[in-house]
Specification:
By secondary structure, the protein is of the alpha/beta class. The chain contains 16 helices and 16 strands. Helix 1 crosses helix 3 (about 95-105) and helix 11 packs across helix 12. The chain is globular and about 75 Å long.
Length: about 450
């Protein structure tokens, strides 16, 4: 039996090449599940790595499956959370290639494509990926860690990788997963009632693909949250104070779509646990790194002012708000934030998103900036009839100051156009905003 011994701390493990062959062969023999098309479409390029990052269970593996062509035997797919692959390091990748050619000697000289799932679990993975790209192979990798991948890419793979970020399903993708399609001509027909009902489900349970398709949604979301906390936060970042990280998570869950600041979180943790500012910051970065939360900065004249101002907290999926105090108005705002992030990640990398206001200025939920220019201001409110004057005034004031006439208010179900002395304010229902077909 071909084995290679590696040292992990003081524990010795083995990488068994026979297990590698077994894994590759089993993958080639089984049928792949049906893949539903997603809006992000990564491409594999020779001599470069294509990195797909995003939260656990958001569909990264299925994106890899979607890249597999008719000749499945030419693809080496490896999921590094499978126990058969335990013990591999990045320096073993040439041996994996040898094991593959032992199985398929007829493929020597043909193009072989590597698909490496949850690659951040492999020590020195970037060394192995660089070897493969140097040899001209097309390589796709996935990971559930934004900061870990970014750091390693920056040091070892600069100029050799294209990175895509995937989030849970957009509302458009959610409808597709439900087997439902709506087109522009359907905007005034019976289908709209079905769309609104599905929007209620989407706001309540979020957009994780499996959750959209399964019945026992709460239990699945509970498992997702537990695994994310255990594997992507506690184990990956070697966090020892479990009670402390759980308190931070509860605090952020209760604060979604609200303002917070690193100093206020540190103040709470210090009073409860005696936590240092450094530790508090490390824990918050670990939660952001795992894609559990996003921290939205303030739009300001200087980067220094922006970083000093409070942040707004948004969850990676509104389904997680089930484990806090769920609020439809905050779910709407969180959903609009995630849609804006998809537009940035999937379509327009130059797009940046901020909030506006505070310190005497009226607040605007989202400021969209492209190449240094404010291109749109968006306000989110459940019922405009209860706050029309306030919402419109905030948008118009900010629009004048930021020289932006593209003003939008997203509501749950109201629609109109309001003329002001400055510009027209568009009011659109959430379902139309998310479908982007109005």
């Amino acid at each position: 039996m071909n084995q290679k011994f590696i040292n992990i701390g003081t524990v010795y493990c083995t990488m068994d090449l026979e297990d590698i062959k077994r894994y590759i062969r089993l993958f080639h023999e089984r049928d792949l599940p049906e893949v539903i098309e997603r809006e992000v479409q990564p491409a594999l390029v020779g001599g470069r790595a294509t990195a797909i990052i995003g939260p656990r269970r958001s569909g990264k593996t299925y994106l890899l499956y979607s890249m597999i062509g008719v000749e499945k035997e030419r693809y080496i797919y490896l999921n590094f959370e499978n126990p058969l692959l335990f013990g591999i390091t990045g320096r073993d990748f040439p041996k994996i290639l040898d094991a593959y050619f032992d199985l398929y000697p007829e493929n020597i000289g043909t193009e072989i494509i590597f698909l490496l799932d949850e690659v951040q679990n492999v020590p020195d993975w970037e060394v192995g990926v660089r070897y493969l790209t140097d040899e001209g192979f097309r390589v796709g990798v996935t990971g559930s860690s934004s900061r870990l991948l970014s750091r390693e890419i920056a040091t070892q793979l600069r100029g050799r990788v294209v990175t895509y970020t995937i989030l849970p399903l957009s509302f458009r993708e959610f409808l597709r997963f439900k087997g439902f399609q709506i087109e522009r001509r359907d905007l005034y027909g019976r289908k709209v009632h079905r769309v609104k009902k599905l929007l209620d489900e989407y706001l309540r349970f979020g957009g994780f693909p499996e959750v959209a398709l399964m019945e026992d949604k709460v239990r699945i979301l509970e498992e997702y949250l537990s695994v994310m906390i255990t594997k992507d936060i506690i184990e990956r970042h070697r966090i020892r104070n479990i009670a402390l990280i759980e308190s931070v998570i509860k605090l952020l869950l209760s604060s979604y779509a609200k303002y917070t600041s690193y100093s206020s979180i540190h103040g709470f943790l210090k009073s409860e646990f005696g936590t240092s500012k450094t530790t508090a910051l490390e824990y918050l970065k670990a939660l952001e790194d795992s894609f559990f939360v996003f921290f939205l900065p303030k739009y300001a004249r200087s980067e220094k002012e922006s970083q000093r101002a409070p942040k707004k907290v948004y969850l990676v999926d509104t389904g997680f708000s089930l484990f806090s105090r769920k609020d439809i108005a905050r779910d709407m705002e969180n959903t609009v934030f995630l849609e804006l992030m998809r537009r940035r990640y999937y379509r327009n990398p130059l797009l940046k998103v901020y909030y506006y206001g505070g310190s005497g200025e009226r607040e605007v939920d989202f400021v969209l900036v492209e190449s240094g220019r404010v291109v749109e201001l968006i306000q989110v409110t459940q019922n405009l009839s209860e706050s029309k004057d306030r919402e419109v005034l905030a948008l118009v004031e900010a629009g004048r100051k930021l020289r932006c006439r593209n003003l939008t208010i997203v509501t749950l179900d109201e629609e109109e156009e309001m003329e002001t002395a400055w510009t027209t304010v568009k009011v659109v229902p959430l379902w139309k905003f998310l479908l982007d077909i109005g």
